[in-house]
Amino acid sequence: MDIVREIIGTAGHREDFRVVHFNVLGNHLHLMVRLARRINKHLGRTGALFRERYHARALRTPREVRNAIRYVLLNGRHHAAERGQLLAPTWIDPYSSALWFDAV
To answer: Looking at the 3D structure of the chain, how many domains does it have?
Structure first.
């Protein structure tokens, strides 16, 4: 989690791109931008970072953007439910950007 926050803090707010939302889970990561090259550089690696689990798609409508944000920010809740955990309606995932999300 620390490396992802560091990378987002230093490289996620440039003119050519920025990290809009993220969620770091135990076995996977959701980003609404491309950071794989930057993470590889930090780790001293080359090639595909998420070879078998990488998915990218351009969001073309406001509804697609809304659904992607909802998916990313609520993914921790989804995985908790799969484990049988019931989270309070006001629970905010501490490993996501949900804390800074200010849209209605």
So the answer is: 1
Residues 6+ apart with CB under 8 A from 98: 21, 23, 73, 92
- Per the structure, the complete domain to which residue 54 belongs is given by 2-100
Annotate 53-89 with b (16+ C-beta within 10 A) or e (fewer).
eeeeeeeeeeeeeeebbeebbebbbebeeeeeeeeee
pTM over 0.85? The answer is: no
pLDDT in tens, 40-88: 777 787 766 655 556 667 778 999 989 988 988 888 899 899 999 999 9
CB neighbours of 92 closer than 8 A, spacing ≥ 6? Answer: 98, 99
Question: What are the pLDDT digits (tens) for 76-104?
Answer: 899 899 999 999 999 998 888 888 887 75
